[in-house]
Amino acid sequence: MNEPQPSAGDSAAGTLIATATEAPGDAATRSAMPPQRRPAPMRDIFVSFQSRDFRFLCLSSLALGFGQWAQQVGLPWLALELTGSAKQIGGVAAVQSGVGLVVAPIAGYLADRYPRRLVIVWSTAASAVQAAVLAALAVSGAMQVWQLYALALAGGALQAFAQPARQSFVYDLTTDETLVNAVTMNSLIQNFARIAGPPIAGAMIGFWGVGAAFMFLAAMKVVAVVLTIFISSRTRQVRMASGRNPISGVLEGFRATWEDRRVLGLVIVHAIPSLLVIPYLPYLSFIARNVLHGGASLFGLLTSMVGWGAVCGLFGLALLRDPKHKGLLMLACFTVYAAALGVVAISHVLVLTMAMLVVVGMVNSVAFALNNTLIQLAAPHDARGRVMSVWQLSSGVQPLGALTMGVMIDHYGVPLGMGSFMAVATVAFMLFTFAWASVRRM
After folding, report:
1. Pick from 60, 30, 10, 15: nearest CA to 230
2. 153-157, 169-173, 217-221, 325-329: which has the minimum mean pLDDT?
3. Are 170 and 179 in contact (CB under 8 A)?
4. Structure confidence at residue 18 as a pLDDT band (50, 70, 90)
5. Three-state secondary structure readout of the chain
6. From CA 60, how far away is CA 54, in angstroms rounded?
7. What is the rounded CA–CA span in Å between residue 307 and residue 290?
């Protein structure tokens, strides 16, 4: 015999009786208990994709990511073919990234002064032309070392022009509530390209030569331009007032960064891996060839391991939705990032190297996604592009790290040349964690 179910009135009465008879201490204890955090349902993991414009931005980022990872494989491999020197690999990487020191402040001003969508379209279209020239010279066999440096410089400058606008554009197309998810999803999309792009580029180089990778690069940039054009021109961008002095406008970005200790700390902690850790990437070609005795396909495979790890890390971050203690989590991930690459530097075992590169991808993707999110939330609305350009400018120390690491590897080998950089970076992240409380508590 079934028990009768209580009616709505019975339930209400029972609730009133329970409330009336509950001890004050019990009520206080219950109210003080934090709500239970439940895992994010699938619709929450992909909440930022509800925006049509954000979907187009992610597709554009995917195409651009495929192209850029083909370039990341192609340029160091071409430098290795032309010169056989780790120092020259570092030189090309240094020129490509170092030009951002000059371009980034101007790019930030343009990102705040003009519609970011148009800044992205024109700079990406120009970089497609640069990629086509790179492909033509590589396919014809006419490439010389000075031309490689010149085209790396041009490509780096055009990428630097687009970067502040593209980073800030994620904020423009989302809300404050979905920003963490949007940054995570955009990074996740780019890391899907990181998984597939390097092996595809490595296979292209193996079958058809390095010129094929650059042809692929040019095609992907054209696709990225077309997809960006489909994004609506109506966003929540707060543009800088017209008639402002461009020089004072550029300087405002530095002032906004300096006056907010949180923003300044986020820029500094972004500079540490740029100087000491990120320069490892082109030297994976050197490790693949001279340590693990492989070729371009192995180089592409090693690079894709970082992408697999990044996808896992970013999915984990999406499951957390809006994690507490973002600053502390970011700093912990940066520390593990450097330590794992220290293991890569001393490894001569393929399986261990691949496993550590997966760990590298997991932690560095989470660290940079949180760093990007926190600085966008902390930046003033009408100076976001310029603050992001200062953030990008902190990457400008990468050439110094790339050149120095190349010299160290040439003279002392990978274990000491690369490993010493990672040891210093690990200590630097630990010291920053203890010294910069305003970032740690974000």
Report:
1. 60
2. 169-173
3. yes
4. very low
5. CCCCCCCHHHHHHHHHHHHHHCCHHHHHHHHHCCCCCCCCCHHHHCHHHHCHHHHHHHHHHHHHHHHHHHHHHHHHHHHHHHHCCHHHHHHHHHHHHHCHHHHHHHHHHHHHHCCHHHHHHHHHHHHHHHHHHHHHHHHHCCCCHHHHHHHHHHHHHHHHHHHHHHHHHHHHCCCCCCHHHHHHHHHHHHHHHHHHHHHHHHHHHHHHCHHHHHHHHHHHHHHHHHHHHCCCCCCCCCCCCCCCCHHHHHHHHHHHHHHCHHHHHHHHHHHHHHHHCHHHHHHHHHHHHHHCCCCHHHHHHHHHHHHHHHHHHHHHHHHCCCCCCHHHHHHHHHHHHHHHHHHHHHCCCHHHHHHHHHHHHHHHHHHHHHHHHHHHHHCCHHHHHHHHHHHHHHHHHHHHHHHHHHHHHHHHCHHHHHHHHHHHHHHHHHHHHHHCHHHHCC
6. 10
7. 23
The answer to whether 442 and 326 have CB atoms below 8 angstroms apart is yes
Model pLDDT for residues 70-117, shown as the tens digit of each residue:
888 888 888 888 887 777 887 887 788 778 778 878 888 787 788 888
For residue 341, how far is the Cα from the chain centroid? 17
Determine if the pTM surpasses 0.70. Answer: no
Query: Which residue, among 234, 250, 310, has the nearest Cα to 106 in the 3D structure?
Result: 250
The domain made up of 53-230+246-440 is a member of CATH 1.20.1250.20? yes
Confidence at residue 334, expressed as pLDDT on a 0 to 100 scale: 94
Residue 50 CA to residue 234 CA, distance in Å, equals 16
Q: What residue has token string 């590298």?
A: 360
| CA–CA separation, 162 and 125 (whole Å) | 10
Predicted confidence at residue 44, as pLDDT, reads 66
The token pair at 32 is: 């003080």
Dig out the tokens for 104 from the structure: 């980034």
Token readout for 73 is: 């494989």
User: How is residue 396 written in tokens?
Assistant: 């400008």
pLDDT of res. 363: 93
Which token pair is 431?
């010291």
Taking a C-beta distance cutoff of 8 angstroms, is the pair 265, 440 a contact? no
d(CA 332, CA 320): 16
Reading the block at residue 411, the tokens are: 């003279």
